[in-house]
Design brief:
The chain is α/β, with parallel strands linked by helices. The chain contains 13 helices and 14 strands. The chain is globular.
């Protein structure tokens, strides 16, 4: 239970967040995202996400002081929000509300990973994994279960009651459903290992069709359950670390009490397919992912996978609006393929923050080069720095990267 001290800490932090959220720049930034996402950009946009928070604490700005575990969760979110706004805000939006997650349970596919972890920094959640392949025959595929969704309304009401006790008069509270994550091949790669799955694609393609087909069908049933029970999330602020503000969503007929998949963004990716041919990409990813993507209002596609040589296949996926251009693409080719049809979602390499010496001018050249290639081809552009595993315990590197990026996009 929250103590008086916990409440005082959280209300002080919430008051600071509420003051920032009320600034006119928040709506101005939302509108810049809407323009970009409508393919009518005012300027390129910048986001930073998936930060190595274990290396960020300076002057105790991130030190947690609450005692109650539930309060510490809120405190962590509020302190990170204030820290990011102060040090590397770029084009973040601070919302005037808190999302309180509904008590939704998902049984999943019934398959867990068998793996060994390699830990280099025990304070960092980023680990190396060696996975064991668990799928050799069609009998193994039959072990995959259909996810079952359930909701505990009593627990949801308890969470809301605690949040109201803590934040009433400070921040609006929103009871939030599930924001779906529907990668087909990320879970499969943990069940089989990337190497194991790639060998099976070549050696036993029918087995892999049955496997990915079963996962696809499971996701579709899961979405049906979330829709029927009114357990999907409301309008998103972010989709895969980028601004999700858009004029087209939610779709006409939207009911906040019962959101539909067509009211939402979804993101798709097949990172382990980086080395497969466009033909195999279509056969094992596009043909299946399209069944999921067609249900959603808009789609962000891609992540670390280089897609500059697979845009013909990406264009087959329904409702795509943003396409990831990772650090491994030929930027000129990617920009020529994207043109004005999609947002060119550039993922600059976070390795620039991890070298022995941080080189701001190298970062400047890289980001400026992206802006120039997109200008030549008319691409709506966003720069998304993510997957930041380390800054070598020098947070100033990230702050400097943010300042450089904003200087370039606002020039």
């Amino acid at each position: 239970m929250p103590t008086t001290q916990d409440k005082d800490i959280l209300r002080t932090l919430a008051e600071q967040v509420a003051e920032i959220a009320a600034l006119p720049i928040q709506e101005q930034t939302r509108q810049l995202w809407r323009s970009l996402n409508a393919l009518r950009p005012v300027r390129p946009m910048v986001m930073i996400d998936q930060v190595c928070w274990n290396e960020m604490n300076v002057n105790d700005e991130l030190t947690l002081r609450c005692e109650d575990p539930e309060c510490r969760g809120y405190e962590d979110f509020l302190r990170r929000t204030l820290y990011q706004w102060k040090h590397f805000r770029v084009d973040m939006v601070v919302e005037p509300f808190l999302r309180v997650p509904k008590a939704v349970s998902n049984t999943g596919f019934g398959i867990g990973a068998l793996d060994e972890a390699a830990v280099t920094d025990p304070t960092n959640s980023v680990r190396g994994h060696r996975y064991t392949n668990q799928f050799d025959t069609e009998a193994d595929v039959q072990r995959i279960q259909t996810p079952q969704i359930s909701h505990n309304p009593v627990e949801t009401e308890r969470r809301l009651a605690v949040a109201h006790e803590l934040f009433d008069g400070m921040l609006e509270l929103r009871s939030e459903g599930v924001d779906p994550y529907l990668s087909l091949w990320d879970p499969i790669s943990t069940w089989m290992s990337v190497e194991g799955a790639l060998w099976k694609l070549a050696d036993q393609p029918e087995l892999m069709h049955k496997l990915v087909g079963r996962v696809t069908d499971g996701y579709l049933v899961m979405l049906d359950q979330l829709e029927e029970q009114g357990l999907l999330c409301g309008p998103q602020s972010l989709i895969h670390c980028t601004g999700a503000y858009v004029e087209e969503l939610p779709a006409p007929g939207y009911d906040p009490a019962k959101p539909r998949t067509k009211d939402l963004w979804m993101f798709g990716l097949a990172q382990m397919f980086s080395t497969v041919s466009p033909r195999m990409f279509k056969e094992f990813e596009v043909d299946y992912a399209s069944k999921l993507c067609e249900r959603f209002g808009l789609v962000y596609y891609g992540c670390c996978d280089p897609l500059d040589l697979k845009m013909a296949e990406v264009r087959m996926i329904p409702n795509v609006r943003k396409v990831s251009m990772s650090a491994w693409v030929d930027e000129e080719r990617g920009a020529a393929e994207i043109g004005t049809a999609y947002v060119y979602s550039r993922k600059p390499s976070p390795a620039s923050l991890a070298w022995d010496v941080f080189e701001p001018e190298a970062v400047r050249r890289d980001l400026q080069g992206t802006r120039e290639v997109c200008a030549r081809h008319g691409c709506p552009l966003e720069l998304i720095l993510k997957d930041i595993s380390t800054v070598r315990y020098d947070p100033q590197r990230l702050w400097d990267w943010a300042a450089l990026a904003m200087e370039i996009v606002e020039a």
